[in-house]
Amino acid sequence: MIKQFINKLMGKTSSSTKPSLGKRHVVPAKVHGINVDWVDERALNVVRTLQDRGFEAYVVGGAVRDLLLGLKPKDFDVATNATPEQVKAAFRRAFIIGRRFRIVHVVYGRGREHEVIEVSTFRAHLDSADASQVKGNERSSKQELAGMTHAVDASGRVLRDNVWGPQDEDAARRDFTINAMYYDPETGHVIDYHGGIADAKKKVLRMIGDPAMRYREDPVRIIRAVRFAAKLSALGFKLEAKTAAPLKRTAKLLADVPQSRLFDEMLKLLQTGHALASVEQLKLQGLAKGIYPLLDIVVERADQAFVKTALQDTDRRVGEGKPVAPSFLLACVLWSDVREAWADRRVKQPPFPALQDAIDEVFESRIGDVSGRGKLAADMREIWMMQPRFEKRVGSGPWSLVEQARFRAGFDFMRLRADVGEVDVVLADWWQEFSLADDATREDLLQQARQESQKTPRTPRVHSVRRADKPVEDPRFREDDAVSSGEGVDADASPKKRRRRRRKPLGDVGGPPAAE
Question: Is the distance from CB of 13 to CB of 7 less than 8 angstroms?
Answer without folding.
Answer: yes
